[in-house]
Amino acid sequence: MNYNSMIKEKETVMNHQGAKAYAMTPEMELYTAVVTCAMSDKYYEDNDERMKRICELISKVDPVFVAKLAVYTRTQMNLRSIPMFLIVELAKIHNGDSLVKRTIEKTVLRADEIMELLMCYQLRNAEGKSIKKLGKLSRQVQEGLKSAFNRFDEYQFAKYNRDNLEVKLKDALFLVHPKASCPEQQAIFDKIVSGDLQTPYTWETQLSELGQKHFATKAEKAEAVKALWEELIDSGRLGYMALLRNLRNILQANVSASHVEKVASHISDPAKVAKSKQLPFRFLAAYKELVDVTSVHTAAILSALEKAVKESVVNLEGFGAETNVLVAADVSGSMFSTISFKSSVMNYDIGILLSMLLKSKCSSVISGMFGDSWKVLNLPQENILANTIEMKRREGEVGYSTNGYKVIDYLVDNNIKMDKVMMFTDMQMWDSTYKEKHIQKSWAKYRQMYPEAKLYLFDLQGYGQAPVRLVGDDVTLIAGWSDKVFEVLNAVENGAEVLDLIKNTEI
User: Fold this and answer.
1) Which of 179, 163, 168, 228 has the alpha carbon at shortest distance from 202?
2) What secondary structure, in 3-state letters, does 103-136 show?
3) Which listed residue, 113, 174, 197, 205, has the most CB atoms within 10 A of its CB?
4) What is the pLDDT of residues 471-497, one digit of tens each?
5) Residues with pLDDT less than 50, the chain
6) 3-state secondary structure of 244
7) How many CB atoms lie within 10 A of CB 248?
8) Cα–Cα–Cα angle for 9, 15, 16, nearest 5°?
9) Residue 389 phi, psi (nearest 5)
10) Helical (H) or strand (E) element with 361
11) What is the pLDDT of residue 5?
12) In whole angstroms, what is the distance from residue 118 CA to residue 172 CA?
């Protein structure tokens, strides 16, 4: 049985545009709300509203599902804040076994996540009190964090031992009371208490030290900055994410051609791309930062980023020449919010990028974008990031409503046979012409023409409603804005249910 068939036909709702939509089961709604959550305001829902809705949904589902969702979002989707929130809320409603402890052991993968989880715990439980006055933790939360403390070395603790954190590392140590597994670890704990952790060698500390030095001339400073960046590149200790974030700085420092070659080779290396586990939009963000940088080496780095983003989805199976695929990206006004307050990447960037990633893996494909209207854009297969930028440049050509039905009407009116229709959207579809057009009606008509056609809705916002009835096996909803949506797609294509990857997660 397809999971979608568990949704009752009568469960209709109104979306944020006041148009008819369809409800989801609590598990499906929780999944969509969580995997699209960046702990920041959405176009139609602020962060407090999102968190309140997630809490309500948590109370309606099996605690084991919540635990597995926390582990899945941290380990597979590489999200960081929302898994901690899920753990804290899980600890409120569940006790009597080791579920919370085991969930923490699977989700706290960096030393700073100890403090992040405690900060979340304070906000949700302390009623305005500081973490120092919280008194005690839930026993299972404490046991899980004890295990976390035993997994990190001095470098890992020192790297994230920052004074600007509300919950500091020393506060966490005193609250959790971890037991050292050996004398060497006890020595590390003692250093945390005394403040004597060795300052780690990082690019941040190196640049900070350089910034405090006095230089006689701008040229002298520029040469010192260039030399430091070259030293950092040669050291091999500049992490993958750090490289992506600093590509613009490296080019503007005018490092040598050989160092640019090292950087390009590093960021496009298949093994390093796989190990880095970067979300696809990270490559897009880096690409956008460079397109206006004047340097003889800019083109080489842009090419390296194109190679890198392809490697990041090298296991995406796509579809062959025998399968006709339509890929549609929503560029409506509600897609123009950023994915988080720290990011310049917008939701429509994500939609376009994911659509271009899928397009690159399909042999027989029509791609385009929709707003007021639907427009086919014929773009080459190979340039994923460049195609994303090009589509973004042209988004005004279709307007800014969310007339998703026009994608399907295009197929109906032109009698075009598609095996799979893929729509990347915030799901808030309506009819800006006020002629009572609806994608549900359009899809039903298309299915009469081609009964084997399937519609895949990639939900990028997680508002909790679907524009099409999620019954039968002709419509599948997949949520999230990482390459993991394609993993879910592959699972569905092989007969699995949408939530199987979560339910099969080990805890």
Assistant:
1) 228
2) HHHHHCCCCHHHHHHHHHHHHHHCCCCCHHHCCC
3) 113
4) 778 999 999 988 889 989 999 998 899
5) 1-9
6) helix
7) 17
8) 170
9) -65, -40
10) none
11) 40
12) 7
Pair 137, 117: CB distance under 8 Å: no
**CA angle, 134 as apex, 133 and 136 as ends, to 5°?**
125
**How far is it, in rounded angstroms, from Cα 211 to Cα 414?**
62
The two structure tokens encoding residue 169: 């590392």
Give the CA dihedral 56, 61, 62, 65, nearest 10 degrees.
-90
Residue 189 half-sphere exposure toward CB, CA atoms < 13 A: 20
Look at the block and give the residue holding tokens 């707003």. Answer: 371
Instruction: Please give the Cα distance from 340 to 170 (Å, whole number).
Output: 29
8 Å CB contact between 372 and 432 = yes
Rounded Cα distance between 499 and 13, Å, is 22
Residue bearing tokens 């909803």? 477
Residue 26 identity: P
pLDDT for res 186: 97
How high is the pLDDT of residue 12? 87
224-235 residue pLDDT tens:
999 999 999 999
For residue 350, give the nearest of 38, 20, 39 by alpha carbon: 38
Q: How many CA atoms lie within 13 A of 336 on its CB side?
A: 12
Residue recorded with tokens 């950023």: 338
Strands 20-22 and 420-425 come out as: unpaired
What phi and psi, each to the nearest 5 degrees, are found at residue 439?
A: -65, -30
* pLDDT of the residue at 3: 41
Residues 351, 478: Cα–Cα separation, whole Å: 13
User: For residue 49, what are its two tokens?
Assistant: 């509203």
Residues 392, 259: Cα–Cα separation, whole Å: 32
Q: Are 478 and 458 contacting, i.e. CB atoms less than 8 angstroms apart?
A: yes
Quick one: DSSP state of residue 460? S
* Interatomic CA distance for residues 467 and 15, integer angstroms: 8
Q: Are strands 454-459 and 420-425 parallel, antiparallel or unpaired?
A: parallel
> What is the b/e burial string over 190-227, where b = at least 16 CB atoms within 10 angstroms of the residue's CB?
ebbeeeebeebebbeebbeeeeeeeeeeeeeeeeebbe
Structure tokens at 390: 């090009």
Residue type for position 220? E
Nearest to 374 by CA among 351, 352, 407, 402: 407
Q: Are 114 and 161 in contact (CB under 8 A)?
A: no
Tokens of 83: 């898994």
Q: Cβ(266)–Cβ(240) under 8 Å?
A: yes
How far from chain centre, in Å, is Cα 389?
19
Res 204: pLDDT: 85
CA gap 120, 123 in Å, rounded = 5
Q: How far apart are CA 374 and CA 358, in angstroms?
A: 19
**Token pair for 222:** 């520029």
